[in-house]
Design brief:
mainly alpha, 10 helices, globular
């Protein structure tokens, strides 16, 4: 419970925590930022880390000179791309071993081929769009690996999605993060960044289930 309370407080007041870290540890904050984004995107069991809000707050801190905009942008982009590559590799390597392919009752060969075909056809837009959706961005590259999506195709969309996600949100924070209204309502904006994509995912899942039930 204490850990959960700390994580919630850290996510909602990430601007204060990050500013305190910069004040105390200086350039070491860049290592923390890299590690946070890498772990959130690269370890399938860590989807709850504050990716979107972290990027926005980093942009805001760059806007007032506490952090270097080009350095933060480059490091976070690298962390996002390498994290997805790590997650893909984990899924690609361990997926077949866990399922033991045809020898396992947990493996559905037809479902695997469907997933593979889906990721070959629509995996690109899935990987890019998932960047902007908490939780989904952690699982999408892992599933792409499990379904054996072509590595070169995955890499292309990984780089594209990473550039749009990191570049877009950090830059938004850089230009708008220090606007008085945004600063005064940052906690509500962070909640919106967490909840709205989640509601979109739930609505999409509900709609797909309803469509499948009526088919």
């Amino acid at each position: 419970m204490e850990l959960a309370a700390f994580l919630i407080d850290f996510i909602i007041h990430i601007d204060k925590h990050l500013e305190a870290f910069v004040t105390s540890y200086g350039v070491w904050v860049y290592a923390l930022l890299f590690l946070t984004i890498f772990v959130e995107t690269g370890v399938v069991v860590m989807p709850f880390l504050p990716g979107d809000s972290l990027l926005f707050v980093v942009g805001a801190m760059c806007g007032v000179g506490l952090l270097s905009y080009p350095l933060a942008l480059g490091l976070l982009f690298a962390a996002a791309v390498l994290g997805n590559q790590s997650n893909y590799t984990i899924g690609h390597y361990f997926g077949p071993k866990v399922f033991q392919w045809e020898a396992s009752k947990f493996f559905n060969k037809g479902a695997f081929y469907q997933a593979h075909a889906f990721y070959e056809r629509y995996g690109g837009i899935t990987i890019v769009a998932a960047r902007f959706m908490p939780f989904l961005r952690t699982f999408a590259p892992f599933v792409a690996g499990v379904s054996q999506m072509t590595r070169s195709k995955f890499l292309l969309y990984d780089i594209t999605g990473g550039a749009l996600w990191v570049g877009g949100i950090v830059t938004a924070g850089y230009f708008f993060g220090n606007v008085p209204f945004v600063k005064a309502h940052l906690d509500k904006i962070i909640w919106a960044m967490i909840l709205i994509p989640g509601l979109v995912i739930l609505f999409g899942a509900w709609k797909a289930r309803r469509k499948a039930a009526s088919a």
